[in-house]
Amino acid sequence: MTTPPLSRITVVGAGFGALSAVRELRQRDPHALITLVAPRAELHYLPGIIWIPSGLRTRADLVVPLDSFFARMNVRHLAASVTGLSADGRVVHTSAGEVANDALVIASGGRFIRKLPGIEHAITPCEGMAAAERIRDRLREMSGGTIAVGFGANPNEPSAVRGGPMFEFLFGIDRQLRREGRRDRFKLVFFNPSTQPGARLGSKTVARLLAMMGQRGIETHLGHKMVRFEADKVVTEGGEFAADLILFMPGLTGPAWLEQSSLPRSPGGLIAADAGCHVPGLERVYVVGDSGSFPGPDWMPKQAHMADLQAGAAARNLLAELAGRPGAHGFKVELVCIIDAIDEGTLVFRNERRQIVLPPTRLMHWAKRGFERRYLALYR
């Protein structure tokens, strides 16, 4: 009697969704041949970059080598970038050659929409460690001036926005300058095309955040579509204002390599998925995290917590499909975050039934640090 061949599973990416998918797959199938495709064997813990400008964290604290994790999980790492897909997802094209698979999990993250004229004059913090270090260095160089902080959206994809970190950079910089005794030399301006910035967090949270800005002397420029950035100003349809440092988070769309694939896409350019993270029309192809567009409420967040939840559903459904059974697992939709300000944090929670926002406390700051420590321990 011949032994059936082992399933070949390819995971694209090395972020939260990808690594959670690997853990779930290996827990449920000790024998599958898992290949992970990513340029580097590293996890970049982006939630922690909010603390780089103040010196609370450095790159070394937040970049975790994954060689030990891959060895424990018996995962082959292919150091390459994905360039496309073919054969209905059965072949992944990479900068290091083709990778054939029996099942595929795409967790390669999204791509920022950098179409606004003059966007090169702004720093996009969540582009990575280097961006946060640039903010740190600019703050050190500046003796005063105006710092403008804002975020945009993908007009065709309501959930493809990452505003939470921008509130953290805003409040963190305010607190940092106060600690350094030079807040009076700076003007902080928060700008957003919506009159209710961060609406996905819930109306209670928006009201709390705007009140916190007022209490801290942070000016707001809300409700006006952005036109362009210049080296020393932000221009909107409702006027312009000077800015010596601009921090801006654009909306998200899908990775560039989607153009070299037949994957179905949402109106906003993300990979279309069903409630079980399956890509419609393709067998054993799944997507999790920022790459995907999922059915659900328009406030469904693009955050690590959701990527982890989606990865669990995708892994279970993928293994069921490989075994000839239908995948019936979904994922719960909830938003959980702590909006941090260096030494205190505001807990925000939202699901289909309720919204919770707590006053800022030191306890929540330490809870965020504790979560970081526990999460990274999984991969060290």
Keywords summarizing the entry:
380 residues, alpha/beta, FAD/NAD(P)-binding domain, 2 domains, five-stranded parallel β-sheet, four-stranded parallel β-sheet, 24 strands, 27% strand
Give an overview of the whole structure.
The chain folds into two domains: 8-110 and 254-322, 3-Layer(bba) Sandwich (FAD/NAD(P)-binding domain), CATH 3.50.50; 122-250, FAD/NAD(P)-binding domain (3-Layer(bba) Sandwich), CATH 3.50.50.60. 27% of the residues lie in helices and 27% in strands. The protein has helices spanning 16-28, 59-62, 67-73, 129-141, 164-179, 203-215, 304-322, 362-377; strands spanning 8-12, 33-38, 42-44, 63-65, 75-79, 82-86, 91-94, 97-100, 103-106, 111-112, 145-151, 186-192, 219-222, 226-230, 233-236, 239-242, 245-249, 252-253, 271-272, 285-287, 292-293, 335-340, 345-350, 355-357. The strands form eight sheets. The protein has a five-stranded parallel beta sheet with strand order 5-2-1-9-20. A hairpin with a 2-residue loop joins strand 7 and strand 8 (97-100). Helix 1 packs parallel to helix 7 (304-322).
| Class derived from helix and strand content | alpha/beta
Low-confidence stretches: none
CATH class of the largest domain: Alpha Beta
Mean pLDDT: 96
Major sheet characteristics: 5 strands, parallel
Evaluate the radius of gyration.
Answer: 21 Å
CATH architecture of the largest domain: 3-Layer(bba) Sandwich
CATH topology of the largest domain: FAD/NAD(P)-binding domain
User: How large is the share of residues in beta strands?
Assistant: 25-35%
Q: How many helical stretches? A: 8
What is the terminal-to-terminal distance?
Answer: 41 Å
CATH superfamily membership of the largest domain = FAD/NAD(P)-binding domain
Number of strands: 24
Residue share in helix:
25-40%
Please list the strands of the largest sheet in the order they lie side by side.
Answer: 5-2-1-9-20
Domain unit count: 2
Question: What characteristic shape results from the CA principal axes?
Answer: globular
